[in-house]
Write a structure and sequence with these properties.
This protein is about 35% helix and about 15% strand. It is an alpha/beta fold. A four-stranded mixed β-sheet has the order 1-2-3-4, covered by helices on one side. Helix 5 links the parallel strand 2 and strand 3. The protein is globular, with a radius of gyration of 17 Å. The protein starts with 9 loop residues before the first helix and ends in an 11-residue tail after the last helix.
Length: about 170
């Protein structure tokens, strides 16, 4: 279900992801449309809801999103970019605590060699690590993230883009 109707092309992008996953996407612009989409998909084991990116420094928009997702059976996973400043990345789960996330996902793992912020966000939040994107090919570059896979990444020598992959 796509709630991201702000970003130009977001609906089309989710349609492409839905096609890649063999699913028909739904778009919801209001709480009533979200309820209708959730009702139509109630027989599914898993329903993914794509929300617009909400700036943690805009509490009003964050509050609106929180109210929209505060429904029985809706579990939130916080998606954060790995390439964010390490200090800000570590504090983002605190900023989004009103959403009551139950897990952490990370995007753009392929765009940084320094994952200290990821570790700090995971430890500081106490949230379960779920997945990470390690490239832009969906669903091929979606990797399960756990302590072992993260440790393997952390222990490899950082490679800067101009140095080439080793």
């Amino acid at each position: 279900i796509n709630l991201d109707t702000y970003k130009v092309g977001a609906t089309e992008q989710l349609g492409i992801y839905g096609e890649a996953l063999g699913e028909q996407p739904h778009t919801a612009r209001t709480a009533a449309e979200l309820d209708a989409a959730l009702s139509a998909l109630q027989n599914r084991d898993l329903v993914l809801i794509d929300t617009p990116g909400v700036n943690a420094f805009e509490p009003e928009r964050l509050g609106t999103l929180t109210a929209l997702l505060n429904k029985p059976g809706v579990h939130t996973t916080l998606l954060l970019p790995c390439n964010l400043n390490a200090h800000e990345l570590a504090t983002m789960p605190l900023a989004y605590r009103g959403l009551k996330p139950s897990g952490l996902m990370f995007s753009k793992m392929d765009e940084t060699s320094y994952l200290g912020g990821v570790v700090n966000a995971a430890i500081g939040s106490g949230l379960k690590l779920c997945y990470a994107t390690d490239g832009q090919r969906v669903p091929h570059d979606l990797v399960q993230l756990d302590a072992k896979s993260l440790a393997r990444k952390l222990l490899s020598k950082p490679t800067l883009p101009w140095e080439g992959r080793r």
